[in-house]
Amino acid sequence: MILLSRDDIEKGLTSLYDWKYENKSITKSFAFGSYLDGISFVNKIAEIAEKNNHHPDLYIGWRKVTVTFTSHDLGGVTTKCVDLAIAVENLFRRS
Question: How many C-beta atoms surround the C-beta of residue 23 within 10 A?
């Protein structure tokens, strides 16, 4: 994994709707029709994260899930963070 510069992060996020770069991480909140829809989404994210050995911080609220990617080992956003944000965005679009 390679740490990305702020410019590279912002370029990587141009194809992603509403993802933000802040506090050395990229994050987005997703809204759902029901609490259980959000839980189902989290379970699918967990499978992707485990398969890629790169795990986001997840906050589950009422009909809302916030996903945050960063590399705790490297202290910032990596190519893998952006790649998995793309995977999560695609997962959301399919649901």
Answer: 10
In whole angstroms, how far apart are CA 31 and each of 8, 24, 52, 54?
A: 27, 23, 24, 23
Domains held by the chain: number: 1
Spatial CB neighbours of 94, under 8 Å, sequence gap ≥ 6: none
Q: Quick one: average pLDDT of 15-32? A: 95
83, two tokens: 């790649």
Beta pairing partners, 28: 67
Range of the domain at 64: 6-94
CATH of the domain at 23: 3.30.1360.20
Residues 43-85: pLDDT tens digits?
Answer: 999 999 999 999 999 999 999 999 999 998 899 999 999 999 9
